[in-house]
Amino acid sequence: MNEWYERASKKLTSEKKAAKLDRYGSLMKEDVYKALDTFCQQDAEFAQAVVQGGSFEECMKTVSKGCGSSLSDLEAFRRAVRFYFPGADVKFHMTVNLCASVEDEEPEEAESKVTVLNLEDFL
What we know:
Layout: H1 3-18, H2 23-42, H3 44-52, H4 56-64, H5 73-84, H6 100-103, H7 107-112
Helix pairs in contact: 1-2, 1-3, 2-3, 2-4, 2-5, 4-5
């Protein structure tokens, strides 16, 4: 890992524990923390902005400000990123996987469902 990521991760971890947040901030802090940590891993410049920027508590107050009764994860992550790096954005990509139930099965279960065909049965 790069030096900026290590410093940003330590900062976010310690500040997350010490943050005094309202109920909305408290509900979102773990997911926002994980997203910020991932973004710091992805980009050293963003990690540097986190190290040199405001506190995680201030970030979460900005994220939860005016959220009303709901706020999408994407919007929460976007607000958090912009707190540390104004003008930045978050891209989100979703796809549908129609075979997910088969892929998520334990390997033993998937193997037990394999049927062996004898070609002679078709003659």
